[in-house]
Fold this protein.
Amino acid sequence: MPRQPRFSKDDIVAAGLRIVRTSGFDAVSARALGKELGTSSSPMFTMFKDMNEVMDAIRTAGEKTFTARMEGVTDYFPAFKEFGLRLVAFAKEDPNVFQMLFLGKDARPEIAKSVARECLGSVEQGYGLSPEQANLLVRQMWPVACGIAALCVRHPEDFPEEEVSKTLSYHFSGIMSIIKSSKEVEDVKPQLKEF
């Protein structure tokens, strides 16, 4: 009768996520997982086909953490503002997981984009926008929220919550007034100054 494994897949994935949180995604290895679990690296390969499968499971666990943080975001008005605030808070509080999900070489931004798309309906109804206008608003706000969140990974102290809220409001108000005016924004091209 084969010996029962001491660790489940969930134990291994949880250990991997702990490593990501403390040292970053690149620190995850079979040896590091074994050390975190107090064993050799061999249990990983009785549960998983290879390290790629382990890493994929860790990313999926990170996505679940993010999804749980975004739960109920569309219950707020405006939903996209709540989404932006939560996205920035997630980057501040769980910077290595944020980096793994959204900034790494194998980033998975689809998970955040799907939440942003959920906010579209709220934007349409709440502001009387057409689907095209709501989509434009979200497309313009998306890089602002993501940019602030990405900056918070390294320097969270530079962006207090009140400032993040005000910045999102400024951008939202500016974009909304342009959309409501139905005017095209001039694409200003930089030109070399003549002296």
